[in-house]
Protein backbone atom coordinates (compact mmCIF):
# COMPACT_ATOMS: atom_id res chain seq x y z
CA UNK A 1 0.00 0.00 0.00
CA UNK A 2 1.27 3.46 -0.97
CA UNK A 3 -0.11 6.24 1.21
CA UNK A 4 -0.25 9.70 -0.37
CA UNK A 5 -1.14 12.90 1.48
CA UNK A 6 -1.95 15.90 -0.72
CA UNK A 7 -1.44 19.36 0.77
CA UNK A 8 -3.21 22.25 -0.96
CA UNK A 9 -3.33 25.93 -0.03
CA UNK A 10 -7.11 26.10 -0.39
CA UNK A 11 -9.90 24.26 -2.21
CA UNK A 12 -11.35 27.24 -4.06
CA UNK A 13 -13.16 26.57 -7.33
CA UNK A 14 -10.36 26.18 -9.83
CA UNK A 15 -7.91 23.80 -11.46
CA UNK A 16 -5.83 22.66 -8.45
CA UNK A 17 -8.91 21.67 -6.43
CA UNK A 18 -10.43 19.87 -9.40
CA UNK A 19 -7.22 17.91 -9.99
CA UNK A 20 -6.92 17.02 -6.29
CA UNK A 21 -10.54 15.92 -6.28
CA UNK A 22 -10.04 13.63 -9.27
CA UNK A 23 -7.03 12.01 -7.58
CA UNK A 24 -8.98 11.38 -4.38
CA UNK A 25 -12.13 10.19 -6.12
CA UNK A 26 -10.55 7.67 -8.47
CA UNK A 27 -11.02 4.15 -7.11
CA UNK A 28 -9.25 2.18 -9.83
CA UNK A 29 -5.96 1.86 -7.91
CA UNK A 30 -6.69 0.23 -4.51
CA UNK A 31 -2.97 -0.05 -3.70
CA UNK A 32 -2.72 3.78 -3.56
CA UNK A 33 -4.51 5.39 -0.60
CA UNK A 34 -4.93 9.16 -0.92
CA UNK A 35 -6.08 11.89 1.47
CA UNK A 36 -6.04 15.69 1.47
CA UNK A 37 -4.92 18.44 3.83
CA UNK A 38 -6.27 21.84 2.88
CA UNK A 39 -6.69 25.46 3.86
CA UNK A 40 -10.08 27.14 3.51
CA UNK A 41 -10.92 29.27 0.48
CA UNK A 42 -12.01 32.88 0.79
CA UNK A 43 -15.69 33.72 1.05
CA UNK A 44 -15.73 35.11 -2.52
CA UNK A 45 -13.91 32.15 -4.10
CA UNK A 46 -16.37 29.28 -3.66
CA UNK A 47 -15.41 25.97 -2.05
CA UNK A 48 -15.07 23.20 -4.63
CA UNK A 49 -15.34 20.60 -1.85
CA UNK A 50 -18.51 22.06 -0.30
CA UNK A 51 -20.92 19.18 0.32
CA UNK A 52 -18.54 16.69 -1.32
CA UNK A 53 -18.34 13.12 0.01
CA UNK A 54 -14.56 13.51 -0.33
CA UNK A 55 -14.62 15.74 2.76
CA UNK A 56 -14.47 12.53 4.79
CA UNK A 57 -10.88 12.15 3.57
CA UNK A 58 -9.97 15.81 4.08
CA UNK A 59 -8.31 17.56 7.01
CA UNK A 60 -8.57 21.35 7.31
CA UNK A 61 -5.56 23.16 8.76
CA UNK A 62 -6.11 26.68 10.02
CA UNK A 63 -3.64 29.21 8.65
CA UNK A 64 -3.07 27.32 5.41
CA UNK A 65 -5.03 29.91 3.44
CA UNK A 66 -3.83 32.08 0.61
CA UNK A 67 -2.67 35.20 2.47
CA UNK A 68 0.82 35.05 4.02
CA UNK A 69 0.63 35.70 7.76
CA UNK A 70 3.84 34.77 9.60
CA UNK A 71 2.22 33.64 12.87
CA UNK A 72 -0.53 31.68 11.13
CA UNK A 73 1.98 30.20 8.69
CA UNK A 74 4.15 28.96 11.58
CA UNK A 75 1.14 27.39 13.28
CA UNK A 76 0.15 25.71 10.03
CA UNK A 77 3.68 24.36 9.61
CA UNK A 78 3.66 22.88 13.13
CA UNK A 79 0.24 21.34 12.49
CA UNK A 80 1.46 19.80 9.25
CA UNK A 81 4.56 18.31 10.86
CA UNK A 82 2.47 16.74 13.62
CA UNK A 83 -0.06 15.37 11.15
CA UNK A 84 2.59 13.86 8.88
CA UNK A 85 4.45 12.28 11.79
CA UNK A 86 1.18 10.72 12.89
CA UNK A 87 0.09 9.53 9.44
CA UNK A 88 3.56 8.49 8.19
CA UNK A 89 2.73 8.66 4.46
CA UNK A 90 5.02 7.38 1.73
CA UNK A 91 4.40 10.46 -0.41
CA UNK A 92 3.49 14.06 0.29
CA UNK A 93 2.22 15.83 -2.81
CA UNK A 94 1.83 19.60 -2.49
CA UNK A 95 -0.23 21.95 -4.68
CA UNK A 96 -0.12 25.75 -5.04
CA UNK A 97 2.62 28.09 -3.82
CA UNK A 98 2.05 28.48 -0.08
CA UNK A 99 1.19 24.84 0.57
CA UNK A 100 4.12 23.94 -1.65
CA UNK A 101 6.56 25.68 0.69
CA UNK A 102 4.99 24.74 4.03
CA UNK A 103 4.06 21.22 2.95
CA UNK A 104 7.49 20.30 1.59
CA UNK A 105 9.28 21.70 4.62
CA UNK A 106 6.91 19.79 6.94
CA UNK A 107 7.40 16.59 4.93
CA UNK A 108 11.18 16.98 5.10
CA UNK A 109 11.09 17.56 8.86
CA UNK A 110 8.71 14.61 9.31
CA UNK A 111 11.04 12.44 7.18
CA UNK A 112 8.51 11.60 4.52
CA UNK A 113 10.59 9.74 1.91
CA UNK A 114 8.97 11.15 -1.27
CA UNK A 115 8.08 14.83 -1.66
CA UNK A 116 6.31 15.89 -4.86
CA UNK A 117 5.17 19.38 -5.80
CA UNK A 118 2.88 20.37 -8.67
CA UNK A 119 3.25 23.71 -10.41
CA UNK A 120 -0.26 24.38 -11.72
CA UNK A 121 1.18 27.41 -13.48
CA UNK A 122 3.93 29.75 -12.39
CA UNK A 123 4.37 33.12 -10.73
CA UNK A 124 7.19 34.32 -12.99
CA UNK A 125 5.13 37.10 -14.52
CA UNK A 126 1.75 38.73 -14.16
CA UNK A 127 1.34 38.35 -10.40
CA UNK A 128 3.97 40.48 -8.63
CA UNK A 129 6.42 43.29 -9.22
CA UNK A 130 10.04 42.65 -10.18
CA UNK A 131 11.40 42.48 -6.60
CA UNK A 132 8.66 40.18 -5.30
CA UNK A 133 9.09 37.91 -8.33
CA UNK A 134 12.82 37.60 -7.62
CA UNK A 135 12.03 36.62 -4.03
CA UNK A 136 9.52 33.99 -5.20
CA UNK A 137 12.06 32.53 -7.64
CA UNK A 138 14.75 32.44 -4.93
CA UNK A 139 12.43 30.62 -2.52
CA UNK A 140 11.43 28.07 -5.15
CA UNK A 141 15.06 27.42 -6.04
CA UNK A 142 15.74 26.67 -2.38
CA UNK A 143 12.74 24.35 -2.26
CA UNK A 144 14.39 22.17 -4.92
CA UNK A 145 16.67 20.94 -2.12
CA UNK A 146 13.75 19.22 -0.37
CA UNK A 147 11.81 18.16 -3.47
CA UNK A 148 12.01 14.63 -4.81
CA UNK A 149 10.13 15.36 -8.01
CA UNK A 150 8.27 18.27 -9.60
CA UNK A 151 5.11 17.88 -11.67
CA UNK A 152 4.35 20.74 -14.04
CA UNK A 153 1.02 21.47 -15.70
CA UNK A 154 1.82 22.56 -19.25
CA UNK A 155 4.85 22.01 -21.47
CA UNK A 156 5.57 25.73 -21.95
CA UNK A 157 5.28 26.31 -18.18
CA UNK A 158 7.79 23.49 -17.69
CA UNK A 159 10.23 25.16 -20.09
CA UNK A 160 9.88 28.49 -18.29
CA UNK A 161 10.49 26.92 -14.87
CA UNK A 162 13.53 24.95 -16.04
CA UNK A 163 14.95 28.09 -17.65
CA UNK A 164 14.42 30.02 -14.39
CA UNK A 165 16.20 27.34 -12.37
CA UNK A 166 13.06 26.59 -10.34
CA UNK A 167 12.64 23.03 -11.66
CA UNK A 168 15.30 20.40 -12.36
CA UNK A 169 14.67 18.98 -15.85
CA UNK A 170 15.93 15.53 -14.73
CA UNK A 171 13.61 15.37 -11.71
CA UNK A 172 10.41 16.71 -13.21
CA UNK A 173 7.67 15.76 -15.61
CA UNK A 174 4.69 17.31 -17.36
CA UNK A 175 1.29 15.90 -16.42
CA UNK A 176 -1.61 17.84 -17.85
CA UNK A 177 -5.00 17.74 -16.13
CA UNK A 178 -8.09 16.10 -17.53
CA UNK A 179 -11.84 16.23 -17.13
CA UNK A 180 -14.28 13.35 -17.26
CA UNK A 181 -16.95 13.66 -19.96
CA UNK A 182 -20.27 15.06 -18.77
CA UNK A 183 -23.78 15.41 -20.18
CA UNK A 184 -24.47 18.74 -21.86
CA UNK A 185 -27.93 20.16 -21.20
CA UNK A 186 -30.08 21.23 -24.15
CA UNK A 187 -29.45 24.90 -25.02
CA UNK A 188 -33.03 26.02 -24.38
CA UNK A 189 -33.33 24.23 -21.02
CA UNK A 190 -29.90 25.45 -19.95
CA UNK A 191 -30.73 29.07 -20.71
CA UNK A 192 -34.05 28.86 -18.88
CA UNK A 193 -32.27 27.44 -15.84
CA UNK A 194 -29.71 30.26 -15.83
CA UNK A 195 -32.19 33.02 -16.68
CA UNK A 196 -30.50 33.79 -20.00
CA UNK A 197 -32.35 34.90 -23.16
CA UNK A 198 -33.66 32.01 -25.23
CA UNK A 199 -32.76 33.76 -28.48
CA UNK A 200 -29.51 35.29 -29.65
CA UNK A 201 -25.93 34.29 -28.89
CA UNK A 202 -24.36 33.80 -25.46
CA UNK A 203 -20.65 34.50 -25.00
CA UNK A 204 -19.33 33.19 -21.67
CA UNK A 205 -16.44 33.86 -19.26
CA UNK A 206 -15.93 31.35 -16.44
CA UNK A 207 -13.34 31.85 -13.70
CA UNK A 208 -12.12 33.83 -10.73
CA UNK A 209 -12.71 37.54 -10.99
CA UNK A 210 -9.09 38.39 -10.28
CA UNK A 211 -6.59 40.69 -11.98
CA UNK A 212 -4.54 37.89 -13.53
CA UNK A 213 -7.71 36.54 -15.20
CA UNK A 214 -8.58 39.96 -16.67
CA UNK A 215 -12.39 39.92 -16.50
CA UNK A 216 -12.17 43.59 -17.51
CA UNK A 217 -11.19 42.42 -20.98
CA UNK A 218 -14.37 40.38 -21.19
CA UNK A 219 -16.45 43.40 -20.25
CA UNK A 220 -14.53 45.47 -22.81
CA UNK A 221 -15.53 42.79 -25.31
CA UNK A 222 -19.18 43.25 -24.35
CA UNK A 223 -18.80 46.98 -25.03
CA UNK A 224 -17.00 46.41 -28.34
CA UNK A 225 -19.71 44.06 -29.62
CA UNK A 226 -22.65 45.94 -28.14
CA UNK A 227 -23.94 46.73 -31.62
CA UNK A 228 -24.41 43.01 -32.30
CA UNK A 229 -28.11 42.52 -31.64
CA UNK A 230 -29.07 39.68 -29.36
CA UNK A 231 -25.60 38.77 -28.04
CA UNK A 232 -25.45 38.34 -24.25
CA UNK A 233 -22.14 38.30 -22.38
CA UNK A 234 -22.37 36.07 -19.29
CA UNK A 235 -19.73 36.53 -16.56
CA UNK A 236 -19.54 33.42 -14.37
CA UNK A 237 -17.53 33.42 -11.13
CA UNK A 238 -16.53 35.69 -8.27
CA UNK A 239 -13.41 36.96 -6.58
CA UNK A 240 -11.51 40.10 -5.54
CA UNK A 241 -12.84 42.07 -8.53
CA UNK A 242 -16.40 40.82 -8.09
CA UNK A 243 -17.93 44.05 -6.82
CA UNK A 244 -16.14 46.11 -9.46
CA UNK A 245 -17.31 43.77 -12.26
CA UNK A 246 -20.92 43.69 -11.02
CA UNK A 247 -21.01 47.49 -10.79
CA UNK A 248 -19.82 47.74 -14.36
CA UNK A 249 -22.32 45.11 -15.54
CA UNK A 250 -25.13 47.12 -13.95
CA UNK A 251 -24.29 49.83 -16.50
CA UNK A 252 -23.95 47.39 -19.41
CA UNK A 253 -27.13 46.40 -21.23
CA UNK A 254 -25.76 43.26 -22.90
CA UNK A 255 -23.90 41.65 -19.93
CA UNK A 256 -25.05 39.60 -16.91
CA UNK A 257 -23.30 38.27 -13.81
CA UNK A 258 -24.16 34.69 -12.85
CA UNK A 259 -21.87 34.14 -9.85
CA UNK A 260 -20.42 30.68 -9.27
CA UNK A 261 -22.20 27.83 -11.04
CA UNK A 262 -21.48 24.16 -10.35
CA UNK A 263 -23.40 22.41 -13.12
CA UNK A 264 -21.03 22.38 -16.09
CA UNK A 265 -23.55 20.68 -18.34
CA UNK A 266 -26.06 23.47 -17.83
CA UNK A 267 -23.50 26.27 -17.89
CA UNK A 268 -21.74 25.29 -21.10
CA UNK A 269 -24.95 24.05 -22.68
CA UNK A 270 -26.14 27.66 -22.66
CA UNK A 271 -23.02 29.06 -24.37
CA UNK A 272 -22.22 29.59 -28.05
CA UNK A 273 -18.63 30.79 -27.50
CA UNK A 274 -16.39 30.54 -24.42
CA UNK A 275 -13.77 33.24 -23.80
CA UNK A 276 -10.62 33.15 -21.68
CA UNK A 277 -8.69 36.42 -21.53
CA UNK A 278 -6.01 35.90 -18.84
CA UNK A 279 -2.53 37.38 -18.63
CA UNK A 280 -1.11 34.07 -17.39
CA UNK A 281 -2.31 30.47 -17.12
CA UNK A 282 -1.13 26.92 -16.69
CA UNK A 283 -3.43 24.52 -18.53
CA UNK A 284 -6.90 26.01 -17.94
CA UNK A 285 -9.48 23.35 -17.14
CA UNK A 286 -12.13 25.65 -18.59
CA UNK A 287 -10.73 25.06 -22.06
CA UNK A 288 -10.92 21.27 -21.63
CA UNK A 289 -14.44 21.54 -20.22
CA UNK A 290 -15.56 23.71 -23.13
CA UNK A 291 -14.00 21.22 -25.55
CA UNK A 292 -15.87 18.30 -23.98
CA UNK A 293 -19.09 20.31 -24.32
CA UNK A 294 -18.32 20.92 -27.99
CA UNK A 295 -18.10 24.68 -27.53
CA UNK A 296 -15.49 26.71 -29.44
CA UNK A 297 -13.15 28.94 -27.44
CA UNK A 298 -11.37 32.21 -28.02
CA UNK A 299 -8.41 32.52 -25.66
CA UNK A 300 -5.34 34.62 -25.08
CA UNK A 301 -2.16 32.82 -26.14
CA UNK A 302 -0.55 32.59 -22.68
CA UNK A 303 1.00 29.92 -20.47
CA UNK A 304 0.29 26.40 -21.66
CA UNK A 305 -2.95 27.21 -23.46
CA UNK A 306 -1.47 25.70 -26.63
CA UNK A 307 -1.40 22.32 -24.87
CA UNK A 308 -5.20 22.38 -25.19
CA UNK A 309 -6.08 24.66 -28.11
CA UNK A 310 -4.84 24.29 -31.67
CA UNK A 311 -5.33 27.65 -33.32
CA UNK A 312 -7.86 27.46 -36.14
CA UNK A 313 -8.53 23.76 -35.50
CA UNK A 314 -10.05 23.47 -32.02
CA UNK A 315 -10.31 27.16 -31.10
CA UNK A 316 -8.86 30.60 -31.73
CA UNK A 317 -5.75 32.08 -30.09
CA UNK A 318 -5.25 35.84 -29.81
CA UNK A 319 -2.36 37.88 -28.37
CA UNK A 320 -2.85 38.91 -24.73
CA UNK A 321 -3.86 42.56 -24.54
CA UNK A 322 -4.94 42.85 -28.18
CA UNK A 323 -8.46 44.14 -27.68
CA UNK A 324 -9.21 44.36 -31.37
CA UNK A 325 -8.07 40.81 -32.09
CA UNK A 326 -10.22 39.43 -29.27
CA UNK A 327 -13.32 41.25 -30.52
CA UNK A 328 -12.68 40.25 -34.12
CA UNK A 329 -12.23 36.57 -33.24
CA UNK A 330 -15.44 36.41 -31.21
CA UNK A 331 -17.35 38.35 -33.86
CA UNK A 332 -16.17 35.92 -36.54
CA UNK A 333 -17.41 32.93 -34.56
CA UNK A 334 -20.75 34.55 -33.82
CA UNK A 335 -21.16 35.26 -37.55
CA UNK A 336 -20.33 31.74 -38.71
CA UNK A 337 -22.33 28.86 -37.16
CA UNK A 338 -20.62 26.30 -39.41
CA UNK A 339 -17.21 27.40 -38.12
CA UNK A 340 -18.44 27.22 -34.50
CA UNK A 341 -19.74 23.70 -35.04
CA UNK A 342 -16.53 22.55 -36.75
CA UNK A 343 -14.19 23.92 -34.08
CA UNK A 344 -16.39 22.59 -31.29
CA UNK A 345 -16.61 19.11 -32.80
CA UNK A 346 -12.86 18.86 -33.38
CA UNK A 347 -12.15 20.12 -29.85
CA UNK A 348 -14.49 17.51 -28.34
CA UNK A 349 -12.96 14.69 -30.37
CA UNK A 350 -9.45 15.60 -29.23
CA UNK A 351 -10.46 16.08 -25.58
CA UNK A 352 -12.14 12.66 -25.45
CA UNK A 353 -8.97 11.04 -26.81
CA UNK A 354 -6.32 12.91 -24.84
CA UNK A 355 -7.70 14.95 -21.93
CA UNK A 356 -9.72 12.75 -19.57
CA UNK A 357 -9.25 12.79 -15.80
CA UNK A 358 -8.66 9.03 -15.68
CA UNK A 359 -5.61 9.37 -17.94
CA UNK A 360 -4.16 12.09 -15.68
CA UNK A 361 -4.78 9.98 -12.57
CA UNK A 362 -3.02 7.00 -14.14
CA UNK A 363 0.07 9.09 -14.83
CA UNK A 364 0.15 10.34 -11.23
CA UNK A 365 -0.21 6.84 -9.80
CA UNK A 366 2.54 5.55 -12.08
CA UNK A 367 4.78 8.38 -10.83
CA UNK A 368 4.07 7.58 -7.15
CA UNK A 369 4.89 3.91 -7.66
CA UNK A 370 8.12 4.71 -9.48
CA UNK A 371 9.33 7.21 -6.88
CA UNK A 372 8.48 4.98 -3.92
CA UNK A 373 10.24 2.05 -5.54
CA UNK A 374 13.34 4.15 -6.25
CA UNK A 375 13.45 5.34 -2.64
CA UNK A 376 13.02 1.82 -1.27
CA UNK A 377 15.99 0.67 -3.34
Explain this structure to me?
This protein has 13 helices and 13 strands. The protein has 377 residues and is α/β, with parallel strands linked by helices. The protein folds into 2 domains: 2-178 and 357-372, 3-Layer(aba) Sandwich (Rossmann fold); 187-354, Glycogen Phosphorylase B (Rossmann fold, 3-Layer(aba) Sandwich). Strand 6, helix 5 (155-163) and strand 7 (172-174) form a beta-alpha-beta unit. Helix 10 packs across helix 12 (337-354). The two termini are 16 Å apart. 48% of the residues are buried.
Number of strands: 13
What is the C-alpha radius of gyration, as a whole number of Å?
21 Å
SSE series: EHEEHEHEHEHEHEHEHEHEHEEHHH
- Proportion of helical residues: 40-55%
Considering the protein shown, what is the CATH homologous superfamily of the largest domain?
Glycogen Phosphorylase B
- What is the CATH architecture annotation of the largest domain? 3-Layer(aba) Sandwich
Uncertain residue segments = none
Judging from the principal axes of the Cα atoms, what is the shape?
A: globular
* Named CATH topology of the largest domain: Rossmann fold
Range of strand content: 15-25%
What number of structural domains do the residues give?
A: 2
Count of individual helical segments: 13
**Regarding CATH, which class of the largest domain?**
Alpha Beta
Overall average pLDDT? 93
How do the strands of the widest beta sheet line up side by side?
A: 3-2-1-4-5-6-7
Report the sheet with the most strands, covering strand number, pairing sense and barrel closure. 7 strands, parallel
Amino acid sequence: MIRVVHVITRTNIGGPAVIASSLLADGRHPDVQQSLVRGMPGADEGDYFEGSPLLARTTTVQGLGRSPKPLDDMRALVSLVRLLRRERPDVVHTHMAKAGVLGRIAAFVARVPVRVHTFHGHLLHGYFGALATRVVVAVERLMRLVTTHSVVVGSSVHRDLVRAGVVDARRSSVINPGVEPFAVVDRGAARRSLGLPADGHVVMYVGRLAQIKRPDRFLDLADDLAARNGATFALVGDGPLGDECRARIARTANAVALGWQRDLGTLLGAADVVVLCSDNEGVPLLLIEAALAGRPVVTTDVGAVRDVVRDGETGVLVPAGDRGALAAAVDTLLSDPALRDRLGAMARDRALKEMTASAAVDRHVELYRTLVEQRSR
